[in-house]
Design brief:
The chain starts with a strand and ends with a helix. The chain is of the alpha/beta class. The longest helix has 15 residues. 28% of the residues lie in helices and 24% in strands. It has two domains: 267 residues, Purple Acid Phosphatase, chain A, domain 2 (4-Layer Sandwich); 29 residues, no CATH class. The chain binds fe (ii) ion (FE2). The site of fe (ii) ion has 7 residues, from loops.
């Protein structure tokens, strides 16, 4: 019997409504990118699951989720999805579900339990009925850093103690301990350091959010950051990267291996990016600063 579990991770799919423009040169057509990734994956008889780690929809709108759900339904294996900061809590849960596409929070396979953590949970607000809901202004979720909050952190601890599996792996949108400078994530990292310090069976994490695929260590665990479909960057070579996904194997002894898979194509050349983009990733410019620079350059070129 083969005890190895095989999973593919997509992240930051950023689906748009039909006919909606990607953000000029700053974004890929995510329908095209999904088709290219889907073809690259091909037929897999040996896959156990496909996971998607957030920013499923570009603006958290129902038609964008409908398109995402249709796209994910093309896989011949089950797909499980967790939200990102671009998503919207209720519409995400209500609009993604299909017979083979779920928003489950815990999935056990063999010796492994996979937890799907909402890294925007700490940014939700309590409504008059006592439910945790999205803040009234979409921007307050969109522009917030990751935040577990006390309830999500307690939920992780509870699930790790409840599951029967020997090994736990966590899927989450915002990567804890990420070296990318634009993330102002001290409080978020502290939340994770607290949780992981008490949970030795958590073997690693798979995340997204930065659109800069990476692998690094945090609290003795490997964090794998998956590529986006919207745009991707290589922060070592200062170039754009094509869209892609990550493949994973999980062995019964607790070993995790992951490989970055990028879909090179003329549509997504690995061209260098400029100083302004570098400054954004280094945390020296904001998105608004970058947008203002792009608009000024467009005017100068007009
Ligand atoms: Fe994203």
């Amino acid at each position: 019997m083969n005890d190895t579990i095989r999973i593919l991770q997509l992240s930051d799919t950023h689906f748009l409504e039909d006919g909606a423009d990607p953000e000029g040169a700053a974004a890929y057509n995510t329908d095209e990118a999904f088709d290219a990734v889907f073809r690259h994956i091909g037929e897999h008889d040996d896959l156990d699951l496909v996971v998607v780690t957030g920013d499923v929809a570009d603006h958290g709108r129902r038609p964008q989720y409908r398109k995402a759900a249709e796209a994910f339904s093309r896989f011949s294996v089950a797909v499980n999805v967790t939200p990102g900061n671009h998503d919207q809590d209720a519409v995400f849960t209500a609009s993604m579900a299909r017979p083979s596409v779920s928003t489950s929070r815990v999935i056990e396979v063999g010796a492994w339990a996979f937890l799907f953590v909402d890294s925007s949970a700490g940014n939700l607000v309590i409504d008059a009925t006592g439910r945790a809901v999205d803040p009234p202004e979409y921007a307050d979720r969109l522009h917030s850093d990751g935040s577990l909050g006390t309830a999500e952190a307690a939920w992780i601890r509870d699930m790790v103690s409840q599951v029967g599996a020997d090994h736990v792996f966590i899927w989450v949108h915002h990567p804890p301990g990420c070296p990318v400078g634009m993330l102002n994530a001290e409080a978020y990292n502290a939340e994770w350091a607290d949780v992981l310090g008490d949970l030795p069976t958590v073997r690693g994490l798979g995340a997204g959010h930065t659109h800069a695929p990476d692998t690094y260590e945090f609290m003795g665990r490997t964090v794998h950051v998956g590529p986006a479909l919207k745009n991707n960057f290589d922060l070592t070579k200062n170039t754009w990267l094509p869209p892609g996904y990550r493949s994973y194997t999980f062995d019964a002894d607790g070993t995790v291996q992951s490989q970055l898979q990028l879909v090179d194509d003329d549509r997504w050349p690995r061209r260098p990016f400029g100083r302004a983009m570098r400054a954004l990733f280094d945390g020296e410019l904001t998105f608004d600063d970058l947008r203002a620079i792009a608009e000024r350059k467009a005017l100068e070129g007009a």
